[in-house]
Design a protein that fits this description.
There is one protein chain. By secondary structure, the protein is an alpha+beta fold. The protein has three domains: 302 residues; 79 residues, Sandwich (Jelly Rolls), CATH 2.60.120.10; 25 residues, no CATH class. Helices cover 55% and strands 9% of the residues. It has 17 helices and ten strands. The strands form three sheets. It has a four-stranded antiparallel beta sheet with strand order 1-8-3-6. Strands 2-7-4-5 form a four-stranded antiparallel beta sheet, with no helix packed on it. It has a two-stranded antiparallel ribbon with strand order 9-10. α3 crosses α13, α5 packs parallel to α10 and α15 runs antiparallel to α17. The protein is globular.
C-alpha cells in the first residue's frame, strides 16, 4: 500500500466538496472542518492496533456506518451527473461498475478470521491509494489553474474578500449577463431595490412586506420580462428557473459583506462551542474507524501521509476562498457543487471549462479511490459474517456487493450528501471507535456499540424527520459516542463481561499435562488414578 493509501478512505469527494462549499458560503464551522479534515487522519494513524473483535455481531454493528459513508458519496456523484446533464439512469450503472469491477476482477486478500479488522492489502487497496492520490493531485492542479486566473494567492484573496463592504454582482458575472439557473428551489431576500429579468419563461412569487402588511404577488414572466423588487421583498423561484440580476447590486444571500463572511456571528458563543465539540467527536471518531493503522511506519509514509492530508484539506479550503473572491454571485441558489463546477467565467470561458473538466475527472478519481478503500475495509470486517460452511474468501466480497447494491438503489433520493455523510461518520464514531477506545473485550465492546447505536438513532431521528434543528440532533455522536465508551468501560470493569477461559491442559502420553498449542509448556505434575 502506498503512503496515500493510509488515508484514501478519508479523502472522499463529499468531504472535499463540503469543505469548499462551507468555506465559500461563510459557514461558521468552515475553518474548524478544514482543520479536522487535516488532523483527524493523523491522530487516527498514531495508534498501533485496530481493535475490533472479529465476531459476526461486531460486524453487524460496524458495517452500517461504512454503508452510509458510501451512500453519501454515491449521492454526490449522481448530483454531479445531473449538473452536467447526465441522467441518474446512466450515472448509477457506471457507479456500480466503478465499485464492483476492481473487487471482482483483481480480488482482495481476505485476512485471517483472527484479525477481521485488518486491512485487505491486495489489488483493491493499492488501486484505491493510487486513484485517491490522482484525485487529490487533479484538484490541486485545478486549484493552481484557478489561482493563476485570479492572480492572487489564497491568503491574498481571503484578505480582499474580507475587506469588501458589500458582496455585489460584478460586471461581467454570469448572473448579470447570461443569467443564473436555479439548481434548487430558492427564496431570495433583497436588501435594496432590484430588477430581476427572466431569461426563460418562468413563474415567480414575490412576498411583499409593505408597512408590515405581508402580501403575495405571482408573476408569469416570458423571456425578457422583468419584475421590480423593493427593499425587504422576497422572491420565490422554482428549480430550473433562469433569471438575470442587475450589475452592481447586492447579492441576495445570507452573507451581506466580506466582513460578515470572514467572521460570521455564529462562530462565537456557547452554541458554537457545542457544535465544535460535536463535529470534532464525529470526525475524529470516524477517522479511527475508517483508517487502518500500520504496525510499522516507513519514512516515506511519515512524510507522505501528513502531506496528503494537508493537501486535501487545505486545497478544499483554498478553493472556497477563491470561489468567493471570483464569483460571490454563486451564493444565489447555490448547491454544494456550485463553487467547484460553476466557475466558467473565471479566466475566460475556455479556461473556465478546462478547470471544470479537471475538477470532474478529479472528483471521479476520488470516488473510485474511496470505493476501493472502503471495499477493502468492508471485506476485512465482513469475514466475521461468513457461515462455518462457507469460505470467508468467497463470502466477504458478497458483503461489499450487497452494500454497493443498497447504496446505488438509494442513489436517486433527494437527501443532502453532507448530512448523510455526517450520519455515517457519527455511526462509525459510536459503534466502532468509542467502544474500541474503551476496551478490546468482545462483550463489553458489543454492549457499548449497541448503546451508542440506539442513542444515536434516537437523537438523529427528529432531525431526519425535520422535527428539530438542535445541535445534538445535528451531531448525535456528541452524546452517543461518550455513552458508548462509558457503557463499554462499565461492563468491562464491573465484571459483567466474562473473562476468556484459560486454555485447558491436555494429557500427553506418560501422564504429563501439556499446553494444547505448545507441548513444551507442559506441567511436570503427573496424575494418578482419580486425579
Amino acid at each position: 500500500m502506498t503512503s496515500f493509501g493510509r488515508i484514501a478512505a478519508w479523502t472522499g469527494p463529499v468531504t472535499f466538496v463540503a469543505l469548499a462549499s462551507r468555506v465559500f458560503s461563510g459557514e461558521p464551522d468552515g475553518p474548524i472542518l478544514v482543520l479536522l479534515a487535516m488532523v483527524a487522519p493523523l491522530v487516527a494513524l498514531l495508534r498501533r492496533e485496530d481493535r475490533l473483535p472479529p465476531t459476526g455481531a461486531t460486524a453487524v454493528l460496524a458495517l452500517p456506518g461504512l454503508a452510509v459513508v458510501l451512500w453519501a458519496n454515491v449521492l454526490l456523484v449522481v448530483d454531479l451527473g445531473r449538473q452536467h446533464g447526465v441522467e441518474p439512469r446512466v450515472v448509477l450503472p457506471a457507479i456500480a461498475v466503478v465499485l464492483l469491477v476492481p473487487v471482482l476482477a483483481r480480488g482482495a486478500r481476505v485476512p485471517e478470521p483472527s484479525s477481521a479488522a485488518a486491512p485487505a492489502s491486495g489489488g483493491t487497496a493499492i488501486a484505491g491509494s493510487r486513484l485517491g492520490a490522482a484525485g487529490v493531485g487533479g484538484l490541486v492542479l485545478a486549484l493552481g489553474m484557478l489561482g493563476a486566473s485570479t492572480g492572487a494567492t489564497p491568503w491574498r484573496a481571503w484578505a480582499l474578500v474580507a475587506s469588501r463592504p458589500a458582496l455585489v454582482f460584478a460586471e461581467g458575472s454570469v448572473s448579470s449577463t447570461d443569467g443564473r439557473r436555479m439548481a434548487a428551489p430558492a427564496t431570495l431576500t433583497f436588501v435594496e431595490p432590484h430588477r430581476v429579468t427572466a431569461v426563460s419563461d418562468a413563474t415567480v412569487k414575490v412576498l411583499e412586506s409593505d408597512g408590515g402588511r405581508p402580501g403575495v404577488r405571482e408573476h408569469t414572466l416570458t423571456r425578457g420580462q422583468s419584475v421590480m423588487l423593493r427593499t425587504g421583498d422576497r422572491l420565490v423561484v422554482s428549480a430550473g428557473t433562469r433569471i438575470r440580476f442587475e450589475q452592481g447590486k447586492r447579492v441576495p444571500a445570507g452573507v451581506p459583506s466580506g466582513v460578515a463572511w470572514a467572521d460570521p456571528r455564529g462562530r462565537h458563543g456557547a452554541r458554537a462551542g457545542v457544535e465544535v465539540a460535536g463535529v470534532s467527536i464525529t470526525m475524529l471518531g470516524a477517522a479511527l474507524a475508517l483508517l487502518v493503522p500500520g504496525k510499522r511506519v516507513r519514512r516515506v509514509e511519515a512524510v507522505g501521509v501528513p502531506a496528503g492530508a494537508a493537501s486535501f484539506a487545505l486545497a478544499a479550503g483554498a478553493w472556497g476562498v477563491y470561489a468567493m473572491y471570483a464569483a460571490p454571485d454563486l451564493l444565489v441558489g447555490a448547491t454544494m457543487l456550485a463553487p467547484l463546477t460553476e466557475l466558467s467565467s473565471v479566466g475566460g470561458a475556455i479556461h473556465g471549462r478546462l478547470i471544470g473538466s479537471v475538477v470532474v475527472v478529479a472528483l471521479g478519481a476520488l470516488f473510485a479511490g474511496l470505493g476501493s478503500s472502503l471495499a477493502a475495509r468492508v471485506i476485512a470486517v465482513g469475514t466475521a459474517l461468513a457461515p462455518a460452511s462457507v469460505s470467508p474468501a468467497r463470502f466477504a466480497p458478497g458483503v461489499w456487493i450487497a452494500i454497493c447494491g443498497v447504496a446505488v438503489a438509494f442513489g436517486v433520493s433527494p437527501a443532502d450528501p453532507w448530512r448523510v455523510l455526517l450520519v455515517g461518520l457519527g455511526l462509525l464514531a459510536c459503534t466502532w471507535a468509542a467502544p474500541a477506545l474503551a476496551t478490546a473485550d468482545r462483550r463489553a465492546w458489543l454492549a457499548g456499540a449497541a448503546a451508542g447505536a440506539l442513542t444515536f438513532a434516537a437523537l438523529a431521528l427528529p432531525a431526519v424527520l425535520g422535527a428539530t434543528a438542535s445541535t445534538v440532533a445535528a451531531y448525535p455522536a456528541l452524546v452517543a459516542a461518550p455513552l458508548a465508551w462509558a457503557t463499554a468501560r462499565v461492563v468491562r470493569l464491573g465484571g459483567l463481561s466474562k473473562p476468556p477461559k484459560p486454555p485447558a491442559l491436555a494429557r500427553a502420553p506418560g501422564g504429563v499435562r501439556t499446553h494444547p498449542r505448545d507441548p513444551g509448556r507442559g506441567s511436570t505434575h503427573r496424575f494418578v488414578h482419580g486425579d
